[in-house]
Inverse folding.
């Protein structure tokens, strides 16, 4: 029989050796001088990839949070062009009262607002964005002030909203109020 290999000798091909070494085979690391440098290099590359992915996630989360706030500013300003662009055709708005609006019915109600019957404020607080590829879920608290001919209504609500990335544009496809109270 042939003599045993010298200590710390690795008979693996370089690609298999790298895979084995990443799995923890110290024998390969000691045997191959270039693998001594490969493991730390691969670790650094993994860290850089993770940091880049995290930065992209943080950037997308900010885009969603900013859009979420911009949509409610558009409701206050009755800016139908922004709303038309960022509400999906399949948008469903479930109010705290149980009323359900489609994109069309909600847009009509915004269109009917007048100077003496309108929202004066819709501000977000405690928002959290959860990303799932081309879907984003945002939760938060919305405080609203609505002027009517008889009174000024102040209320707050907690919500869950779902956004979908469609044709490179994030669109709100669902708003569900989970809790509502008057201020």
């Amino acid at each position: 029989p042939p003599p045993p290999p010298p200590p710390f000798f690795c008979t693996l091909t370089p690609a298999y050796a790298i895979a084995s070494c990443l799995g923890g085979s110290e024998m390969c690391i000691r045997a191959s001088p270039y693998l001594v440098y490969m493991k730390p290099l691969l670790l650094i590359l993994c860290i850089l990839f993770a940091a880049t992915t995290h930065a992209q996630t943080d950037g997308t989360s900010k885009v969603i949070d900013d859009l979420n706030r911009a949509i409610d500013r558009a409701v206050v300003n009755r800016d139908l062009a922004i709303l038309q662009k960022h509400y999906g055709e399949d948008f469903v708005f479930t109010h705290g009262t149980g009323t359900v609006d489609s994109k069309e019915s909600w847009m009509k109600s915004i269109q009917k607002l007048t100077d003496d019957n309108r929202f004066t404020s819709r501000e977000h607080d405690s928002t959290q964005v959860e990303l799932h590829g081309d879907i984003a879920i945002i939760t938060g608290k919305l405080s609203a002030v609505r002027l009517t001919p008889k009174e000024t209504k102040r209320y707050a609500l907690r919500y869950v909203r779902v956004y979908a990335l469609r044709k490179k544009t994030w669109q709100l496809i669902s708003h569900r109020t989970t809790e509502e109270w008057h201020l």
